[in-house]
Amino acid sequence: MAKQNNKARTGALRIIGGIWRGRKLAFPEVEGLRPTSDRTRETVFNWLQPYIGGSRCLDLFAGSGALGFEAASRGAAEVVLIENNRQAFMQLKQNAEVLQTPNCHIENKSAEHAIGALNKTFDIVFIDPPYQADLWTKTASDLLSHNLLSDGAMIYLEYPAKQDRPDLPSAWYLLKEKKAGDVKYCLFEFHAGEDD
Question: What does this protein do (predicted)?
Answer without folding.
Answer: Specifically methylates the guanine in position 966 of 16S rRNA in the assembled 30S particle.
